[in-house]
Each structure stands twice: as C-alpha cells, then as structure tokens.
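Tutorial handout. Part one gives the primary structure; part two gives the three-dimensional structure as tokens.
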Amino acid sequence: MKAPQRALIVAAALALGACSSLNPFSSSGKLPALTPITSPVATSEAWRVRVGNTGVYVLQPAIVGDAVFAAGDGDVVRLDNGRVRWKTPLKVTISGGVGSDGNLVVVGTPKGEVIALDADSGQVKWRVPVNAEVLAAPAVSNGLVVVRSADSRLFGLDSADGRQRWVYQRATPPLSLRNSAGVLLESNVILAGFPGGKLAAVSPANGSLMWEGTVAIPRGATELERMSDITSLPVMGSRATCAVAYQGRIACFDMSNGSTLWTRDLSSSKGLDLDDSQVFVTDEKGAVLALDIGSGASAWKQDQLAGRGTGRPRVINDYVVVGDAEGYVHLLRKDDGRLVGRVRPASSPIIADPQRAGGSVVIQTRDGNVAAVGVQ
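Part two.
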C-alpha cells in the first residue's frame, strides 16, 4: 500500500473514531438507561474465563465443537467447556484473531506476521510474513488459511506450512475505514466486503474473482462523505447472500451468479445475520431491525437499544442476541423484536461478534473476559 493511501486510512480512523456508529465506547456520557423486562426468559452464564486485554484491537473468538479459541495480551488460549486446556504466550501483539478449523489455530500481528498453532497442543506450527498489518481473524478450512490485511489484500496460505498459494488484490478508494472485518470462507467460495461498497466472491482454489456485487454506491461531494465501506462480515444462507455498508445500503444477492435480489438504504458498521426468512441488522444508531429476506421489507425494529453501542446481531434458536458497551447480552424475539432477556457476564464493552456455540452464545469483552451464556 502506498504511503499516502495508508495515511488516509489512518486519518479516516482518527476522524471517525468518535462517531457512535463506529466507536460507541468513546462517548464520555452515560448510555441510555435499560427498561426492565417483564417475565424474562431464562438465561444462564455457563462459564467465564479471563484471557487478557484485547487493547485497541477486536479479537474474535473461534468456536469448533466444544472448544473455544481466544486471544488476549499476546496469548492464545484453548478453552474446553470453560476449562483452560492450553495457553501459549506468543510474545507479540496479536491484532487479528482467532481463526480455526479444529486442527489449526491462526492469528495475525500488526507487523504482518501470521502465526499458526496446533489446536490440540497449542504448539506453534509455523510463522510467515505477509508484509501488511493484519486486523481481521483469519479463516481456516479445507487446507487453506485466508488472511485479510489492513490494505484489503487477501492471502491464500497453505495450512500445512503457511506457503503462499495466491494473493487477491483490487483497487480501493483513496479514503477508507480502518476495520477488523475478515472473510467468510465456505467450501467453494470466499466472500469479502471491500471499501467502496463492493462484495466479492473469490475462488479458494486460485484466488480468482468469481463475481462482484454492488452493495452501496459512494455518494457525496467529499471523500469523507463518499466513504461507503463494508466493515463487517457478509452472511450466507440457503436463500441469499447479504452484506451491509457504512453510509450505504444493505443488499442481498443470488449466490450462484451474484445477481442482486434487492437493496435498501441502511447504514451499519456492526453487521448482520440471517435465518431462512429474515435478515437481522444493527444500524448506525444501535437499533436492531429485521427485514424480509425475499424482498427487504421491514418486519420489525427494536430501538430501545439505540445509543448503547449495540453490536452485531446473531441468531440463536428463537432469538436474536446482541451485546452492548456495558457488557450486557440482550435477547430479542425473532418474530417481533421484543426484548425478552438480559444478562451481564461482564462490565466491559463487548466488541467482538457474539459466536454461536450450540444453544449458547460466547462473547469476548475488551478487558479480556470470555464467557458462555446459555439461551433457553
């Protein structure tokens, strides 16, 4: 990445750091009060383990079966049902993590090093440079590790030894948002959102572009106004593949050829999730919305969480689960958006995406607590 563009990426991060939609934890004021829930559904904290501070980075935990892989304070940890199986100090700052397929555990560093550990023992298997800062969790599947660098390049690495198989690179706007969005890796496709509102489907075999869809079209008179970046993971379901852009739109596509099914104006930097009938998204104000997956029509909107630093929604059983800036985990009913449950496993902001683990949700907080919350 050229120095001027790198400077603009950093400048964008600094200029927008105080925006509530991008950094809700920077506000010095109190968050809106929570409304008591009448007859809440049962929730339980199954376990909680402190793994170490994440610092200024967003470190996603990875779930494979009953194993949880997490990182903090330069350490990578495996938890089995809340018990520490191993803890490996890497003696470096971890800025991108964690990705795992159950055999390999992979993290990245600010200096562009990708480190892979054995999932059973925690021993380091290989370390390779990609010569670019890694902010996102690597994706691991079918002998391939896909690493996204801060300059939006995708590196396909061999999971056996870290050997580079391919690199995918595309032109990006002169100004883009610094973010921790990674890639979605399925057996036959890699999905990644990019600055400028583009969603790309890339071949895992050779890194070639399969199709590209337009989620949002940059608009405005200045480069700042024209930023319309996809800063969260896309999602894939049986009926559609969907993504959302900051200062842009939400869009769903036909996975077979990338044709647009529908679009709708909506800004989000937090992300979305879906089931067979609806798409759930947290907007830039922190409200959670449900849209019909076939048309994009509104189903419901829950705005009682607006202003609370609400994160990415995740579907768990009959509920939509979100975390907030005070460490609360909220349960909303999928069918009507009613708030029906709340638990506070920690008091630090939940900055990583909640991860599904059977009938539970695993969260990681900024101060390094990893907890599993059972959802009935």
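Part three, for discussion. The longest helix spans residues 3-15. The first strand starts at residue 43 and ends at 50.
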